[in-house]
Amino acid sequence: MTAETVEHAANAGPTAGEYIGHHLTHLQTHKQVGVIDFSVLNLDSLFWSILLGSLGLFFMWRVARSITSGVPGRMQAAVEILLEMVDNQAKGIVHNAQSRKFVGPLALTVFVWVFLLNSMDFLPVDLFHMVFGATGLDHTIHYFRVVPTADLSSTLGMSTAVLLVCLYYNIKIKGLGGWAHELVCAPFGTSKNPVFALILGVLNLAMQLIEFTAKTVSHGMRLFGNMYAGELVFMLIALMGAVGFGSATGIALWLGHVVAGTGWALFHILIVALQAFIFMMLTLVYVGQAHDHH
Questions:
Q1: Does a structural domain hold residue 187?
Q2: What backbone torsions phi and psi does residue 42 show, to the nearest 5 degrees?
Q3: What gap in Å lies between CA 90 and CA 279, rounded to an integer?
Q4: Is a pLDDT exceeding 60 seen at residue 11?
Q5: Residue 124 · residue 112 · CB < 8 Å
Q6: pLDDT tens per residue, range 96-116
Q7: Is residue 6 part of a domain?
Q8: Which pLDDT score is estimated for 74?
């Protein structure tokens, strides 16, 4: 390879694969070892999750402070519609009025938080990398992702929190003994024969553990999969506009980049809201199931 070839390769910039790989890498406390490494923290996901969660709480608090008994403003009307929607869904799924005092606000918090996290996908793909480059921070911040729900650790963290709430209500509603009895007696029942009772108890416990695991994993994976795919599509569309205007093909790809980006962004509004709604509904369903006796 000649010196001219090496210089050209250095100035050519990253390939499509390198570009996507760079944008799919998290800002982490240290380099991850293996597929699963519980000692690593994704600092970008933590930053945006805490920031957007705080902003969501502050926004709802400000609206609650400004509520009037007269004709509501647009913001108050929108929040009241959202509250009514969540309350109706909670009443239809969780029939315990005492539990709804906590579960209703929890569902509202989940919807608002996930919606805000998903909405980060509307920001331009290279926005923060350009800001870091202009301010000189690119020397210290090489990787930075802005969609926490496209991070599996974030979505599984939220689904695990929902699991803990479900376990709490299983024990609160049924009692520790009642729930323990359910773990070894449902869904296959039991038997008066001690040997069969032991076999059925082991099978029932295994099925219960599989059910809890499957619910938690699928709850987090569903949100992650949809948002990760949406983020990847935005990156592919961004690559279309990176060809340049040196040829008719480049101009056509840039125009395609504008049209496809606009169309996908408009369609993604539905995905962002729908995924937040689904995550909230599954939270209500799982907590509602924790109230059911088997």
A1: yes
A2: -85, 100
A3: 13
A4: no
A5: no
A6: 999 999 999 999 999 999 999
A7: no
A8: 86
Of 2-11, 75-84, 153-162, 244-253, the range with the lowest mean pLDDT is 2-11
What residue has token string 């926004």?
59
122-145 mean pLDDT: 89
Q: Which of 31-45, 121-135, 271-285 has the lowest mean pLDDT?
A: 31-45
Q: Per-residue pLDDT tens for 20-46?
A: 888 899 999 888 877 677 789 999 999
The Cα 112–Cα 86 span in angstroms is 11
Q: 101 is in which domain, residue-wise?
A: 17-290
The mean pLDDT value for 173-177 works out to 94
If one counts the domains in the chain, the total is: 1
Bridge partners (DSSP) listed for residue 28: 42
| Residue 10 pLDDT greater than 70, yes or no | no
Residue 74 lies in a domain: yes
Active-site residue numbers?
A: 218, 222, 226
What lies within 8 Å, CB to CB, of 281 at 6+ separation is 89
pLDDT of residue 34: 72
Distances (CA, A) of 192 to 179, 199, 202: 20, 12, 15
For residue 105, tell me if it sits in a domain: yes
Query: Residue holding tokens 């008994």?
Result: 69
Residues facing 42 on adjacent strands: 28
